[in-house]
Write a structure and sequence with these properties.
The chain has 20 helices and 16 strands. With 524 residues, the protein is α/β, with parallel strands linked by helices. The strands form 5 sheets. It has a 5-stranded parallel β-sheet. Strands 1-2-4-3 form a 4-stranded mixed β-sheet. Strands 5-6-7 form a 3-stranded parallel β-sheet. Helix 2 crosses helix 3 (81-91).
Length: 524
């Protein structure tokens, strides 16, 4: 007898609905899975066999053939256990096959027949809803995550017996599927319920902890407001890491679309916090400087997994001690910084992952760390300094919109405990107001920040008064600025004007943007 069950797989960050065809026929007992199954899928034969028996059902001692369609796509993941098990039971007459219909089943199955939680539920739920299918039957623990998809009929199950009960009770009508009281009941909710299922984190540092360093504070505020890349240089102990740690507390809130994008990426990576709700706070990723190219950019031999640049999408990627990173690893950042996405190709798989992150980096000014410091003399030779500066290539340095050097004062102190500085909440108010101006201005372009603008959009939205235009032209001629440099100065100036609540970029905005971009620019 033949049965057909619908399921879903991940292709990069996208879910794809697939078919699971199961044929149970006479012949020597065997269990074969075809249709480009990867190791985790092939291993499901033993899990499914034990789960069916331990759940109290009869495993057919016959020839079993499972075909995963379409056959040209690689199938990976333990979440195909549930549809394979139900397909076998339906083909063997232990499950009413009429209830399979438009229902989609996903979920790993343990040897005792229980259905356990899994990563990647959100993009799969989005795909199921886009195909007009449903209900989506999935592990009960993952139902809150699937609830983020508006109008999707979901049913949570805790074991194989619950899934069989759903099908038999539905009597051929999937719309009648309702989970048992021991599971998560049928859900029809709208996405993004405010205050429910949302996750976030408390910022590690507050801007009030940063005493003095007015230029660095200003650069941090501008970077947060416009989503600009920022390079911080200075001797050890001058507060570079402290400043970067203040960013989560002043970053603007995400829009609903941004939050959904972030949650989908973290869902695929299995990083959605407990409860499976919407991730509300912008990501702040800080990998160690020994990180590899694949861990930074993403990849995988079969299924493609997001790297740090994708996990930082719509948030911050902080690279402390950036000059200690491998040169090849750093150069791999150039393409995602420019295109705001990553294209990963494997032998039979190619995927595009979002990578619209804000890069913040910190570095010492020289190998010994004390170049320009008033507390300790630098011991580096010119040759050592040249080699050190060459660790960051010109094209990579050119992608930093803001570059700030932090030094101690003449007495060797960075922190003035008597000074009273603004706290993060006050700075965030200005950042939020500036970002809202950007969203209103750029909403027709589908953009959320000034840093996302391309050349044509810069020409359209970066309106300058006459003095500002003349100043920019003079700076370009005097310093030989490239087209990329001019565009980045213009975008930063647009953000400065937004913080000042100005619709037109003024002369002072251009000068400040240029100063913050070029100060000690060639010192890593």
């Amino acid at each position: 007898m033949l049965s057909q069950v619908k399921s879903c797989i991940l292709f990069g960050l996208k879910g794809l609905v697939i078919g699971v065809e199961v044929d149970v026929s006479n012949g020597l007992p065997s269990f074969e899975i075809v249709g480009l199954p990867q190791t985790t899928v092939r291993e499901s034969r033993e899990r499914v066999r034990a789960a069916i028996r331990n759940a109290g059902f009869q495993f057919p001692v016959r020839r079993i053939t499972v075909n995963l369609t379409p056959p040209e796509l690689r199938k990976e993941g333990t979440h195909l256990d549930l549809p394979i098990a139900l397909g076998i039971l339906a083909a063997n007459g232990q499950v009413d096959p009429s209830g399979l219909g438009r229902a989609v089943f996903i979920g790993p199955v343990s040897l005792d027949g229980s259905v356990v939680s899994m990563p990647g539920v959100l993009p799969m739920a989005v795909a199921v809803h886009a195909e007009g299918l449903g209900p989506l039957v999935l592990p009960a623990e993952n139902v809150p995550e699937a609830r983020l998809v508006e109008g999707l009929h979901t049913c949570g199950v805790t074991c194989l017996a619950d899934a069989v009960g759903l099908l038999n009770k539905a009597q051929g009508d999937p719309s009648k599927m309702v989970a048992s009281p021991s599971c998560v009941s049928d859900v029809r909710t709208s996405a993004f319920r405010q205050g429910k299922g949302e996750t976030g984190s408390v910022p590690a540092y507050d801007m009030a902890d940063v005493k003095g360093n007015s230029m660095a504070r200003r650069a941090l505020e501008i970077a947060a407001a416009g989503g600009h890349n920022l390079l911080l240089t200075g001797p050890p102990g001058t507060g570079k890491t402290l400043l970067a740690g203040c960013l989560p507390g002043i970053l603007p809130s995400m829009t609903r679309q941004e939050a959904l994008e972030v949650t989908m990426i973290h869902s695929v990576s299995g990083l959605v916090p407990g409860g499976g709700g919407l991730i509300k706070e912008r990501p702040f990723r800080a990998p160690h400087h020994s990180i590899s190219v694949s861990a930074l950019i993403g990849g995988g031999s079969g299924r493609i997994y997001p790297g740090e640049v994708s996990l930082a999408h719509n948030g911050v990627l902080f690279l402390d001690e950036i000059t200690e990173c491998d040169r090849r690893t750093l150069e791999s950042l150039r393409q995602p910084l420019e295109d705001r996405e990553v294209k990963i190709s494997r032998s039979s798989v190619m995927a595009t992952l979002p990578a619209g992150f804000m890069l913040v980096a910190a570095a010492n000014p020289c190998p010994c760390g004390y170049r320009g410091d008033h507390l300790k003399a630098c011991t580096c030779t010119p040759a050592m300094l040249t080699r050190y500066q060459n660790r960051l290539s010109g094209p990579l340095l050119d992608r930093f919109d803001l570059s700030v050097s932090i030094y101690r004062d003449e007495q060797g102190f960075v922190l003035d405990e008597s000074a009273r500085e603004e706290d993060s909440s006050s700075v965030r108010e200005r950042v939020e107001a500036a970002r809202q101006r950007q969203i209103r201005r750029l909403e027709r372009e589908g953009l959320f920040s000034n840093a996302q603008m391309n050349l044509s959009q810069i020409k359209r939205y970066c309106r300058m008064d006459r003095d500002a235009r003349v100043e920019l032209a003079q700076l370009q001629e005097k310093w030989g600025l490239s087209a990329r440099a001019i565009s980045r100065v213009s975008k930063v100036a647009r953000t400065i004007a937004d913080l000042g609540e100005r619709d037109v970029i003024a002369l002072s905005d251009i000068r400040e943007a240029f100063m913050l971009r070029t100060k000690e620019k060639h010192s890593p």
